Amino acid sequence: MDINEIFKCFENHLNLVRVLDDNEIDGLVSMIPTDFVFKLPKSFYRLPLYRARYKDGRFDTSSIDQFGYIHDASKIKLFRYNKPGEQVLYTSTHPITAIEEVDNSSDSDLFISKWINTQDLNYVVNLNPKMRSSHSGRIIYPFILDKVGQEKASQLERLGTILEWPVKEDDEQKQIVYRLTSSIASKLFETCNAIITTSAKSKSGELNVTFNKNAADSLKLQCLFEYKHSDIKRILAKVSHVGVVNSHNSIEWYNFAVSFSSVKIKRITHIDNGGDVTLKSYDNRRLISRLQGGDSSLECTLVPNIQSGMKDKQVGIIVDNERRMKYYVVFKYDLVP
Q1: Residues 6 or more apart whose Cβ sits within 8 Å of residue 41
Q2: Which residues of 299-315 are buried (b: 16+ CB within 10 A; e: fewer)?
Q3: Which of 42, 115, 325, 335 has the fewest CB atoms in 10 Å of its CB?
């Protein structure tokens, strides 16, 4: 049976045309080729990855283990790319995508952890034309196409269709999909460290990167951000605390304060007619600006950008609808007890 026939059997299974038993699934999965593995360009390795977790229940927020994969294997249930008890780390290439992947309409606060890959890993990339819409996808997609011929590219796209198969709320259908996708992932993990797929929940083609346990252990947790609950579109403006890994490999949590000596207006865009904007006064996080020659003021709160480095300059965008203008503020922030 060639690879296209195997994929056809999988697709029939997922379409519920014919449901395979466990032995049939294992037999087909065992025939999947192991030559789908690639080293990726260094420009991809340098990209940070994100994982979201709701602040639900009581857990030790000083422990790195609480923000990676589940360490108690007995608590791991069947999911898309892991069998029961199988430890994998699910991450995304964008913080909003990480939130969307775990969003369950909870009103709890949220943690987002930021991870950095420090190793030269082997990846299986499931090609999906949608990924070309994202920055990370634009790095990977042409690179893989250049490495493989059209036939293998079509196979990788078809494999991606299977692994990214949409699930319904119906628990039985979800179990059928996850039984197959987790078995395929386990097979792929025999020769690769991570599987790259396109997030079905991302409108901009952002990627999900799933690491096996050994690869996950090699990732570096750079920092964490705690967010007050809000709707997803605005949640990144609700930072409450920043977590940093200390020399003892545990997490210390800080408030943050804008370093106002670093605050500068970078650029002003006139939507209609406007004037020069000057900084009039400010406090720990709030910036109050005043239009030159005017009496009214505009207030905004500056927050860290999780996609920037902690020591990098941050950029805030202030839109003044009343004056039909927007301007850009560059700043740095400090961590405070």
Answers
A1: 139, 143
A2: ebebbbbbeeebeeebe
A3: 42
Once rounded to an integer, what is the mean pLDDT over residues 292-310? 69
Of the pLDDT bands very low, low, confident and very high (cuts 50, 70, 90), residue 298 is: low
Tokens of 236: 């990144």
Domain that holds residue 262: 256-336
Q: DSSP H helical segments within the chain, as ranges? A: 3-14, 22-29, 42-45, 95-102, 135-147, 150-163, 171-188, 213-218
> Is 131 found in the same domain as 78?
yes
What are the C-alpha distances in Å from 70 to residues 65, 75, 217?
A: 8, 8, 12
Whether residues 66 and 143 share a domain: the answer is yes
* C-alpha torsion 58→219→230→102, nearest 10: -80
Residue 131 and residue 205 in contact, taking contact as beta carbons nearer than 8 Å: yes
Looking at the structure of the chain, the number of domains it has is 2
Which of residues 174, 198, 233 is at a domain's end? Answer: 233
81: nearest Cα among 1, 197, 169, 172: 197
Edge-to-edge, what's the strand order for the sheet holding 286-291?
277-282, 286-291, 297-301
The DSSP bridge pattern shows strands 194-198 and 123-125 to be parallel
Please say whether the beta carbons of 302 and 314 come within 8 A. Answer: yes
For every residue of 156-214, DSSP letters joined together read: HHHHHHHHT----S-HHHHHHHHHHHHHHHHHHTTT-SEEEEE-TT-TT--EEEEEEHH
Q: Which pLDDT tens digit goes with each residue over 111-170?
A: 999 999 988 899 999 999 999 999 999 999 999 999 998 899 999 999 999 999 999 877
Q: Write down the pTM of the prediction.
A: 0.88
Could you tell me which residue, 330 or 317, shows the higher pLDDT? Answer: 330
- The candidate with the shortest Cα–Cα distance to 191, out of 37, 28, 3, is 37
